[in-house]
Amino acid sequence: MLAEKALDLIRELKRTSGGTLPPFNEDKIRQVLEEVQTLFEQNRDTAKYAAEGQHDVLAAIQLRHAGIQRNKRCLLAYLYNRLENIRRMRWEFGSVLPADVKYNMCEHEAQWFNQYNRLLANYMRSIGESGGLDLTQDMKPPKSLYVLVRCLMDHGEFETQDGTVILLKKNSQHYLMRSECEHLIRQGVLEHIVQ
Amino acid sequence: MAANFTLDSNPDSYFSLDDILASQEKVPCTFNTQVSNMGYMDQSTTDTNIVSGTKLELPFWLAKSLDRGSRSIINIDTPKNYKEVYRQIFTADPNVVDLHKLGPYFYLFGGKLISLHLPDNDDIASVLLKTFQGRFRRIMDGSQNTLNVDLTSQVSLLDEQERLLFSAGQQGLHDFQKWETRESEKLSTSTMVANHRKRKRFVLSSKSS
Questions:
Q1: How far from B148 is each of A42, B137, B143, B155, B164, CA to CA, in Å?
Q2: Which residue, of A11, A105, A168, B11, has the fewest CB within 10 Å?
């Protein structure tokens, strides 16, 4: 059936929920592009010799054309949805992605991510007074300036704004400024303790 | 959360995964003319051409584009799940029907069928509406009131649109609960990170075993 492989790509994306990216299926994309090429060449060759009244040939051309457009749609949707996932990850994971996600991206997607990072950083630098506003912070309205946190895993040393160095060992508790540790909490390294 | 309204969340969008999958559902078609060299689409014959009068089940996107234009290549018939027999089942009791089995995109695909201008268009449209109305109450009830009960048996009968509604309802309930217990003040690990970590732990543990 026409455009089966393209549909496999779509199903693959639909199956994986947020949090990971499946590996870039370059193989399947190549197969889809080959199918498009075959259909296109068949159409081009038949169109050269088709006369006006030959309904069967014209119907075949229309059918193949529909197949080409369907393949195109599936490919574009695959690429677009992957980029959307990557964009969402920038806001969740921060500017450095985990290694296995990076491994699953193709070269162009990695470039796109870097450019998006740069764009976002430039924008954040330009708004708000004195040096810019970090939009990826304060995802929930802040209730206090300092927060009590517990460390969930060994994360090494952490330097606060006023210069004190804190060792983040598992299960140690600290009283830190909210703005500094928010991104560590979002990444799951620290845990916010509420009384 | 930045830009929740993206080009693929709208189900009518070109890039929407749901729309692509829903338009893959099959419709029964009869070919009015011969089609040269496309005989491989018909598994039951070995002709090079599709003979006029062949009946095939084509995916919706193909049927729609062949139906366009003055040249009538195919005649489209209503799919089995939207015919009179099933419509009577839906009107009798919408709540017992397993919509997930009848095509996981029952409503989306039904909406697309309307655009084909089949003879029983009005009946299909009214049955879609009535089925949804009939089932909505239970969906709302289930998602809003049962915190710890396992609802997989109910959810498994719902189609994709209804599942979205159901999870939105549950999300609303959880958010309200968190607000009541002041847990919403607590900064938390983002869900993406949590899922990612769980999957990584699972993969690592299965690799080591």
A1: 58, 20, 11, 14, 19
A2: A11
pLDDT along chain A (195 residues), means of 10: 87 77 87 90 83 76 90 92 88 79 88 92 82 74 82 82 82 83 78 76
Q: Give the pLDDT band of residue B2 (cuts 50, 70, 90).
A: very low
Subunit contact B183:A194, Cβ cutoff 8 A: yes
* Tens-place pLDDT, residues B154-182: 888 888 888 888 889 888 988 888 888 87
Q: Which residues make beta-bridge pairs with A156?
A: A168
Task: Write the single-letter amino acid at B27.
Answer: V
Q: Please answer whether residues A146 and A140 qualify as being in contact, where contact means their C-beta atoms are separated by less than 8 angstroms.
A: no
Test the A interface: residue of B44, B51, B189, B204 with most A CBs within 10 Å: B189
**What is the DSSP code (8-state) at residue B21?**
H
Residue B157 CA to residue B99 CA, distance in Å, equals 6
Min Cα separation A162/chain B (Å) = 23
Whether A59 and B73 lie within 8 Å, measured CB to CB: yes
Q: Residue A110, Cβ neighbours under 10 Å: how many?
A: 13
pTM attached to this predicted model: 0.84
